[in-house]
Design brief:
Helices cover 40% and strands 16% of the residues. With 173 residues, it is an alpha/beta fold.
Length: 173
């Protein structure tokens, strides 16, 4: 809860080099309650692991680490962190690995739970997705307490199933 008002405040960060996904979530019902500083975005896309892992995204990682520090200071005890991301794109692979490394160095005793979506050749939007996933896999395992892997195609099939009644799958879903 927020110490000043006593209201419950969700803790989380939404990060992307493309401003569209964070802004879409922020404007939806799922974004309600999050503070504006929980949404970090760049000005373009970053499709490859190597571009995202290079100096190109340092501003995002620095901003995310600073916001994590701010949110951690509001807590009595830090039990751990959860990261949810897809590793087919540059941000989900390269930026996530940089952020996991920074979390491991700043919070060495905290548990880091990682939930990632691996790309699927049938639902893929880019030819570099397998490359991004393979480069990120080793780094993620090194800097997390545990990692749970989901198959992108299986998730898509589940959401597209008639029983789920999700008419149009988007960032908000």
């Amino acid at each position: 809860s927020d110490k000043a008002s006593g209201e419950r405040v969700p803790r989380g960060l939404f990060i992307d080099t493309d401003p569209t996904p964070p802004e879409t979530i922020k404007a939806s019902l799922n974004g309600y309650g999050f503070q504006d500083r929980s949404f970090l975005a760049g000005k373009g896309s970053c499709a490859t692991f190597s571009r995202a892992e290079s100096i190109y995204t340092d501003y995002l990682v620095t901003g995310a680490a600073e916001e994590m520090r701010r949110q951690a200071e509001e807590l009595d005890v830090i039990l751990g962190f959860q990261m949810h991301h897809a590793i087919g794109g540059g941000v989900g692979s390269g930026v996530a690995c940089k952020l996991l490394k920074k979390m491991a160095s700043h919070y060495p005793k905290a548990r880091v739970q990682n939930y990632c979506i691996f790309p699927s050749p049938e639902v893929s939007t880019s030819v570099v997705e397998p490359y991004n996933a393979m480069l990120a896999a080793g780094m993620m395992l090194r800097d997390t307490t545990f990692t749970v892997v989901f198959d992108n195609q299986a998730i898509y099939r589940l959401l597209a199933a008639p029983t789920m009644k999700v008419p149009d799958i988007s960032y908000v879903d």
